[in-house]
Amino acid sequence: MSSLTQWYDELTDRLRSAGDWIAPLGLRLLLAHEFYKAGNMKAGIDAVPGWFAEKTFPVPFDWFPAGVNWAMVTWIEILAGLALALGLFTRFFAFSLVVVTTIAIVSTHWPESWSSLGQLWEGYSVSRVVEDGEFRGNFRVPMLFLAMLLPLVFMGGGKLSLDHLILKLTQRTDLVHARNGDFIALALALLLPAIVLMYLIPSWGIGLLLAAIAAGIHGVRTA
User: How many whole angstroms separate alpha carbon 200 and alpha carbon 159?
Assistant: First the structure.
């Protein structure tokens, strides 16, 4: 039994090492294609479309004119698409796309009203769902994008990236495997979904935010 366990542990160790090379690459290339294509399509439109200008955006994006928001989302998608393909500043651009995707869900894909989680789940669809005159949403695809972006925010672009090349050139490759699993790390893990949920389901977002703050305070005190 011990030899079987040892073989399994050695296999999983090598799979983790292989994953440092290949796992983030598939996410990066797929997301790069989707967002670059979306941004390039927007860049080819001469004026802000009426459907976009009529949308109500959440704070702080409601402070800006529709043209500014259109330009921001266009160039974030284009630049982030190129950056993810190259694996350059992966965490920054992945987080930027988390923001863009969250705002898109809030302003376009999220149900206008729902009274239960079961009813909310009806909006997990790739098409517009309307029942009894109420919009049930179609947030499936952007939610999948969020789930794909999170590993890039937390884990980076992997070894097949310009980010890793920069680490090698600056002799900092030890950071690839360095881990500090303290309460501050837990606070960061809770903070990002808290920010997203603050826009989607505020009560859940506030709960996660309070948990993140508590974990961060505990982490600072015990550091």
Answer: 34
At 134, which helix (H) or strand (E)? strand 134-137
Residue 135 phi/psi, 5-degree rounding, is -75, 120
Cβ atoms of 122 and 116 closer than 8 Å: no
Tell me, yes or no, whether 49 and 86 share the same domain: yes
Rounded to 5 degrees, φ, ψ at 2 are -65, -35
DSSP β-bridge partners for residue 134: 131
Report the percent of the chain where pLDDT is more than 90.
48
Segment 60-97, tens digit of pLDDT: 888 888 888 888 999 999 999 999 999 999 999 999 99
Q: How confident is the model over 14-22, as a mean pLDDT?
A: 84
Q: What is the mean pLDDT of residues 179-200?
A: 89
Structural domain of 198? 179-223
- In terms of phi and psi (left: phi > 0; alpha: psi -120 to 50; beta: otherwise), the region of 136 is alpha
In a domain, 14, yes or no: no
- 11 within some domain: no
3-state secondary structure of 131: strand
Residue 184 has pLDDT above 60, yes or no: yes
Nearest to 79 by CA among 90, 69, 68: 90
CA distances from 192 to 98, 105, 147, 185 (A): 9, 16, 12, 12
User: Do 116 and 132 reside in the same domain of the chain?
Assistant: yes
